[in-house]
Amino acid sequence: MKIATWNVNSLAVRLPQVLDWLAANPVDVLCLQELKLSDDKFPLDALTAAGYQSAVFGQKTYNGVAILSRAPARNIVRNIVGFTDEQSRVIAATLDTPQGELRVVNGYFVNGHAPGTDKFEYKMRWLEGLRNWLRDELSAHPRLVLVGDFNITCDDRDTYDAEGLRETIHHTTEERQHLQALLALGLHDAFRLFEQPEKSYSWWDYREMAFRRNRGLRIDYILVSDALKPRVSACVIDKLPRKNERPSDHVPVVAHLNLL
DNA sequence: ATGACGGTGTGGCACCGA
Length: 260
Description:
six-stranded mixed beta sheet, 4 helices
């Protein structure tokens, strides 16, 4: 089975691109972030017609996440249990696939603006809340994936300018320690389980021709639990949608799982 | 040093993202 994550930066604008991408890439699960629309505006019918069920946690203007899946979803949880949040950033669901259960946690991690700001403090508290909840989720669901827009570069390979951007947002030691603490719960970056091209990124600024110059960051991840790690056969970043007219600034990441 | 681009909501610009 194939699972993908994509920050679409407004599903209202990007729906045609999502439908085109699904037609060309018929994945079993697609996790979306930054829907930027309320639940009543979610394009349920178009995605149903494309063959996908939708578990949605929308929000007007900002944030918003959804899990699209061919298999039915149950035990849907919205936001982090034990962490009060005004913003719609997390949705989790158990999928009953033909190859058994899969717990999917989809997150739009806090941006954080800059170290020393209130937004950065919120990011740190949010990451701690996520970790505390995920510890329980992993105990209850050994076959778990945590995917989404993490808004953190894992290490210096994940940025176009490691020296120039050192200790700036998405590159700070504090953010990276939080990501390492998540991994220490028993999660693995599917992308790094395989040899990958150098300078592989999942996001490029809209400005300064950043995509053409490949000045990007890898901040969108698929993390798999210990139990799933030996079941991952590939993980790739699909840069093609960044060449579309009116593209999202992020592109999809896809992992192949050989479930039993 | 700053802003650059794009989306949203409001209203002719501000805020936010990464």
